[in-house]
Specification:
The protein is of the alpha+beta class. It contains 19 helices and 22 strands. Strand 18 (about 320-330) and strand 19 form a beta hairpin.
Amino acid sequence: MRTKILFGVLILTTGVILGMGLGSAMSDDTRDALKKLEHAFLIINQRYVEEVDSGSLAEHALEGMLDELDPHSVYIDEESMRRVEEDFSGGFEGIGISFEFVEGVDGQDTLTVLSVIPGGPSEKVGLHSGDRIIEVDQESTIGYSSLDVQRTLKGPRGTTVEIVVVRPGYSDPLNFSIVRDRIPLYAVDVAYMIDEVTGFIKINRFSGTTHQEFRDAVDRLKSRGMQRLMLDLRGNSGGYMEMAVQLSDEFLPEGALIVSQKGRIRDANASFNATSNGLLEDEPIIVLVNESSASASEIVAGALQDHDRGLIVGRRTFGKGLVQQQARLPDGSALRVTIARYYTPSGRLIQTPYENGDREDYYTSKRELQENSALMSAKEILDEIPDSLLYVTSGGRTVMGGGGILPDFIVDIDTASTFLREILSADIANTYARMWYDREGESLTQQWGDQREQFFESFMVDEQEFQGFLDYARVRGLRFGSEEGAFDSDEVEADRTYLEARIKARLAVRLYDLEAFYPVMHPEDHTLQEALKLWSEANTLVEN
């Protein structure tokens, strides 16, 4: 069976590449091939021994054609296309909650409010973190899936949905009538001051609102004294190329090349240069990347690295240097077809090589490349690669092409212990934090609800609570002690600081919002902590 992989690391550009205008441009060979395809489709549709689903047949035909191209030219069905549009338009219409599923009666999932979006419809009517939603419009939610949540809670702005919740500590269910509204999807996960001079901004995608969100975040941090910035692009799989160009422009002087693209058709060839008066043209910059930083993220990292404008820290990026255009099909589905390759300012093509669109081999080779890169320093890797893949930055530093952005400083993954892996894979820390909030949410909110910064600085998971966490871990099947296969006290103590931070971070999400997770966990973020030691190198780039 053919393995089909839809990988969400696509650079999007506006425009339509299919339509009435292409017919006159077709060669005779192309017309003949199209007639052949149409003829075969009709024969199968009309004469096959069993009735066929024409829509499904057409979708498989499209997928088969795209399989012969590169791994990022893909077909997107109508339902998936709606979700993609929400992700990159910067919002959707619904009730404004983050949710999770909690195991309920007979092991069936119960829909639970993780946090409410500030200013959204759910906050306005008084929905709380920890509320179990048991009914939506008189329909039981027991056993709901994520698709069921989308189906029932999303809806046109101005429409009303009736929900019933069970709130921990309350004897009777509560009824809420919520008027749906436009709910923003933010590209900036968090923006805050790590210390008196260091700002931190994490961007999760390059959507239509990313550049403005970034500018707003920079303005806020500058008002608090920011003199240098750590930009986190880890896990950011890309988005709109235009947003990557505009973001890069904020760091670079007027006229500096940001990225260029080259394709077979004339309209696919373009270069993009910085304009004047960027917000951060003089401040030291560190950019965090990893193996999931792709496409638009790599445009930003490549531009800053090639102009010696920012220090790149972390792990080798994904390696996607292909530009797609999107064409909507009549049923609402879409094709994304590669029309060009993009190049960093020094001329690097950072696309990982591929053979005949073989997706499985493509992603396997990527994993191997990234694993090997993690075992060596950047200098050792540069010393071993052929001269044809070496390029020179504006300041004379050597950088590498041929598969992702190689960081200036490589930080390997901080490998988790067996004990920590079991805790995390079973979601025990998160579940315990939820139980704690269910038990003491009201008192925690009274004590810390309007003391966000103080919570970050001084709240601690005390000895009694940590022992309660271990007792819960035992209930979930973990064994402690000296018997074979059990975790001893030394193993527990080795991971205790991280686990306490994890529990605290999950509590913070319930007390405040999703952003609160990051300041709590950053002391345990190995890559970030290593990057904080490199400001002298980042300062040197600025000075030179």
